[in-house]
Specification:
With 167 residues, this protein is mainly alpha-helical.
């Protein structure tokens, strides 16, 4: 879980005061693409945690694949010039040439980037080619915590950037 920024509350207040928004098509991309990947990771990890079992190597590979997809989605939302013709669901982001407010980019980089990085490192540690092994329950909980942290962040940011909710 990414540590809160030291001035987080003031930054959210600034978003509200300056009426900083995120275009709906970016939210759609975030929830449809990133949300689907994070939900898959969440459900996969929860399945094993509910049984108090380690995550097998095969499922760990799937989780890592979804983590890497998520990293790419966040990168492309932050830097639309990275969007290619293969990214059909991100074409509107590219077409509109939307550059996120620097504060939003900082939030995305800090919260989403750090949580995805934590998940990726954790999974990759156990998928070491020198000796792949299941992800133990304790580290599976860390992965789950990171997905929940991302969800919490996106919900808070949505509230702060939505004119209809912020009032």
């Amino acid at each position: 879980m990414a540590k809160p920024l030291p001035n987080e509350d003031a930054l959210y207040e600034r978003i509200r005061d300056e009426k900083i928004t995120i275009p709906p098509f970016i939210w759609d991309a975030m929830y449809n693409l990133l949300g689907d990947s994070v939900s898959f990771i969440n459900f996969q990890v929860s399945y094993y945690l509910d049984q108090n079992k380690p995550i097998p190597v095969e499922d760990s590979r799937k989780i890592l694949d979804y983590v890497m997809r998520s990293v790419e989605i966040v990168r492309k939302i932050i830097c639309p010039e990275r969007i290619t013709d293969k990214d059909a669901s991100l074409q509107k982001v590219k077409r509109e040439g939307t550059i996120l407010n620097p504060l939003i980019r900082e939030f995305y980089t800090h919260y989403l980037g750090n949580d995805l990085h934590i998940m990726g490192l954790c999974v990759q540690y156990y998928l070491d080619p020198a000796g792949e092994r299941p992800i133990p329950v304790a580290d599976a909980r860390k992965i789950l915590d990171a997905t929940l942290s991302m969800r919490k962040f996106l919900n808070r940011l949505r509230q702060a950037t939505s004119p209809s909710i912020a009032s």
